[in-house]
Specification:
Blueprint lengths: L23 H25 L5 H11 L5 E3 H7 L4 H13 L3 E6 L2 E9 L1 H21 L6 H18 L5 H8 L17
Antiparallel strand pairs: 1-3, 2-3
Length: about 190
């Protein structure tokens, strides 16, 4: 594959299209966008049929998978697909529904933890089987074990570049005041 430093090769082809329109990088980016959009649409439709939004489930699932079912709001913001203000509004709604609680951070007077309540964990438990069936139907059942392992490692490698704060370890460092430095790709743990 060509690097971004290489000049475009030759003039337009016989149909008048520029060679860069057929570049594999354009194809890769387009396939990624289309796949993510289609996957998200299907997952959100399934979740909405269970009376939960995709964003709410994303936040509750992240909390359910975190130690103590809690994350600092800054960590949760770094790991979610929401803006800071969008996350605050969502946590307000989840708190009003008794699915999430806010607790002050003992080491940072301005910081708060978002904590999944027992009711929130019950809600995740209710929705998770259907969610996993959707994920299996759209993704994991069409990949063999080696393909899935490679796919996960590749996603982690890309995430380390495009959203380094989404990595839980990086998000924790940022919440502690350390700068979010992109990881070197050779240091990305395919199992993390």
């Amino acid at each position: 594959m060509r690097s971004t430093d290489e000049p475009a090769q030759g003039p337009a082809d016989e149909h008048g299209s520029h060679p860069l329109l057929h570049d594999e990088r354009v194809t890769a980016a387009g396939l990624l966008v289309e796949t993510c959009a289609g996957f998200r649409e299907a997952v959100e439709a399934d979740l909405e049929a269970r009376a939960v939004t995709g964003s709410a489930f994303e936040v509750m699932l992240r909390l359910a998978r975190s130690p103590g079912h809690r994350l600092r709001m800054s960590e949760l913001a770094a790991q979610s697909t929401l803006t800071n203000s969008g996350l605050t509004r969502l946590v307000d709604r989840l708190e009003a529904a008794a699915l999430v609680a806010r607790e002050p951070c003992p080491t940072d007077r301005r910081g708060f933890f978002a904590v999944l309540t027992p009711e929130g964990l019950d809600r995740v438990d209710q929705v998770l089987p259907s969610h996993l069936a959707t994920v299996d139907r759209l993704l994991t059942s069409i990949l063999d074990d080696d393909e899935l392992a490679t796919f996960l490692a590749t996603l982690r490698k890309i995430r380390a570049v495009v959203r380094p704060g989404s990595d839980p370890e990086v998000a924790a460092r940022v919440a502690d005041g350390d700068p979010a430095e992109p990881l070197h790709l050779s240091a990305v743990d395919p199992g993390g």
